[in-house]
Design goal:
The complex is a heterodimer. Chain A is α+β, with helices and mostly antiparallel strands. Chain A folds into two domains: 171 residues, no CATH class; 98 residues, no CATH class. In chain A, 34% of the residues lie in helices and 20% in strands. Chain A is built from twelve helices and twelve strands. In chain A, strands 3-2-6-7-8-9-1-10 form an eight-stranded mixed sheet, sandwiched between helices. A four-stranded antiparallel sheet of chain A has the order 5-4-12-11, with no helix packed on it. Chain A is globular and about 65 Å long. By secondary structure, chain B is an alpha/beta fold. Chain B has eleven helices and seven strands. A five-stranded parallel sheet of chain B has the order 2-1-3-5-7. The chains are: A alpha+beta, B alpha/beta. At the A-B interface, loops of A face helix 2, helix 6, helix 7 and helix 9 of B.
């Protein structure tokens, strides 16, 4: 069963059947924003949502994570932690799935990261296709993430009274198969799905003033652009843009002791290039002392360096960095600033 | 090897930070397995005068404070500043906004019970401090971390990043998003964004980060309909010393 149909009225029933498989995390309303939270009942979720404050990254690359346990006397140190339980991420937007794909590339790169991979192995992703823009901050079309491009076990597409299901893995197959209320897609259903997706595409447009190739060139030429001075002057250094990014993977590692000063854990915590002392080294030398240079670095880590290293853009177009910025530094405006400068030159 | 002896002494303050230590519960019991607490009037009546680690709470606000601190510090191998009053001067710095004579008149009227009063200052203006636990009050878990560092003889790094780092990781709704003024972006972290977690904007009790983006902050205030005077007013409570102001002026004046 590659493509299937489920009526919306049957969704709670299907959701209940998923609980047997593992803990479920989905989007939930928090004041006027949204967050991924553990979900017990289908109705708790908001399936129409703008990207959550933090991406679902927190479930496969947590803010703080114990990597291994150790003790000093008698000396003992463990291998990477393996005991993770099965879990499901429900209603993940295509931009966030793109984020997971980026993290996969990074943490599979030698030396592979066993903690990430062990956790990832237990993760099931049920995606939800966006049928219209979440808000004006997203730039998903520019990077091609406005449509599903793999990386999920099941993708749900809204057809009005039903969801089309694209079953994309063996894991997904297990969750969808053998249910009387989930049926194989008919020719007529396929027509409906195509019409819905065609209609949707009319609403999405490239958010940048140039195609992705020209963006790449603009970054090639734009290292000394005045755009960075402007962004740096406005940046308050709160680090929120890096905190909310689905592809920021920098971390710090420190040994944390228990009060007995004998047992401890080696813990990994998120670390950000936007922190004041991120590039400071032992002699006091700071390789990126200004907020302009730090912001530029963030952009180059999305639009240039990973393209050279992994042939992949690390901006998923989710718009979180713009949405969260209290200084209203806009990713779309910054990239367009580089593009326009190039056109003008 | 005998356990290191720890003594708590308070100066000009409310003793709220010692209360946070007393409230640590199980962590405090764990701590007592590693150290002997010989002097801590919040939790015990015994008063030992021999100690290795001196934990000082409160600012220095009189000649008497100063002499007493020097005397108790002379016996200690390690000195820990506990809470905003000891670490930066805290709310006691407010009195420095007026002359000693003026304050006395406002507070005491015609009598003068504190003849040797001096402008309030943090304890590192009198003795060398090895460890700082910031905050008003301190955040209990950070105190535990600092004590571990003391016991291991390691330095404790106060986070150089702002409260926003912790706040965003806790997935709080940004105070600015709610139109509220918050000192999170310019205040050093370490409290796990205690106030915003409870729906209250940060008041900057831990002091400013070393490199606050003053100009950018000014832009933001204007965007949210707030004024520069507004931010300076907010700084009055905890960040009004010359040292703290200088961090901000660095960029404001350039």
């Amino acid at each position: 069963m590659k493509y299937a149909i489920i009526a919306k009225t049957e969704m709670p029933r299907w959701f209940d059947s998923l609980k047997r498989h593992g803990k479920i995390f989905g989007p939930k309303k928090k004041e006027h924003q949204y967050v991924f939270r553990p979900i017990n009942e289908f109705e708790e979720m908001s399936l129409v949502y703008i990207p959550t404050i933090l991406p679902p990254k927190k479930y496969y690359f947590p803010q703080r994570e114990a990597l291994l346990k150790f003790s000093i006397d008698p000396y003992r140190t463990d291998k990477a932690i393996k005991e993770f339980e099965e879990f499901i991420l429900f209603a993940v937007h295509t931009c966030d799935i793109a984020g997971i794909q980026c993290m996969d590339v990074v943490f599979n790169d030698a030396p592979a990261d066993p903690n990430y991979l062990n956790r990832k192995e237990k993760m099931t992703i049920i995606g939800l296709e966006c049928m219209s823009y979440c808000d004006t901050y997203a730039s998903c079309t520019a990077v091609g993430n406005h449509v599903p491009r793999g990386g999920y076990d099941i993708m749900l597409t809204d057809l009005g009274d039903a969801y089309a299901m694209h079953v994309n893995s063996e894991k997904g197959e297990k969750l969808a198969a053998g249910k009387s209320y989930i049926r194989e897609m008919s020719e007529a259903d396929r027509g409906r799905l195509k019409r819905a997706q065609d209609e949707k595409l009319k609403k999405f447009h490239n958010e940048f003033n140039g195609d992705i190739k020209s963006v790449e060139k603009a970054f090639d030429d734009g290292f000394f652009s005045s755009v960075w001075q402007d962004v740096g002057r406005r940046c308050v250094g709160c680090t929120n843009c890096t905190a909310v990014c689905p592809t920021c993977y920098c971390f710090d590692i420190a040994d944390e002791m228990e009060m007995n000063l004998n047992d401890g854990v080696r813990a990994r915590t998120w670390s950000y290039c936007q922190m004041d002392d991120f590039a400071k080294v032992a002699t006091g030398e700071d390789f990126r002392p200004g907020r302009d240079g730090r912001q530029r670095h963030r952009y180059y880590r999305k639009f240039k360096y990973p393209v050279a290293k992994y042939n992949k853009y690390f901006c998923t177009g989710c718009g979180r960095c713009t949405r969260t910025c209290m200084a209203k530094i806009s990713l779309i405006e910054t990239v367009n600033g580089l593009l326009d400068e190039r056109k003008g030159a | 090897m005998s356990k290191p002896k720890v003594a708590f002494f308070e100066f000009t303050d409310c003793e709220g930070c010692q209360l946070q230590v007393a409230n640590l519960g199980a962590d405090l019991l764990e701590l007592t397995k590693a150290v002997d607490i010989v002097n801590f009037r919040e939790i015990m009546s015994e008063e030992g005068q021999e100690y290795d680690v001196l934990v000082v709470e409160g600012s220095i606000a009189s000649k008497h404070d100063e002499e007493r601190l020097k005397a108790v510090a002379a016996k200690a191998k390690v000195i820990v500043a506990l809470g905003a009053c000891a670490a930066t001067g805290g709310v006691n710095n407010l009195k420095n906004l007026k002359s000693i004579e003026e304050q006395k008149k406002i507070v005491y009227g015609d009598v003068d019970p504190v003849k040797d009063a001096i402008p309030a200052k943090p304890i590192d203006a009198v003795v060398k401090v090895d460890y700082y636990v910031h905050g008003c009050p301190i955040h209990g878990p950070e105190f535990v971390k600092v004590m571990q560092c003391v016991l291991m003889g390691k330095p404790y790094q106060v986070p150089a990043y702002p409260v926003c780092v912790e706040c965003k990781q806790n997935e709080n709704i940004c105070m600015y998003d709610k139109g509220q003024f918050c000192l999170g972006p310019v205040t050093r972290a370490g409290c796990n964004s205690w106030l915003p977690n409870n729906g209250v904007p940060c008041v900057g009790c831990r002091g400013l980060i070393d490199n606050p983006a003053a100009n950018a902050q000014k832009d933001i205030l204007e965007k949210y309909g707030l004024t520069v005077e507004g931010i300076l007013d907010k700084f009055t409570l905890y960040c009004n010393t010359q040292k703290e102001r200088a961090k901000y002026d660095k960029e404001f004046k350039s």
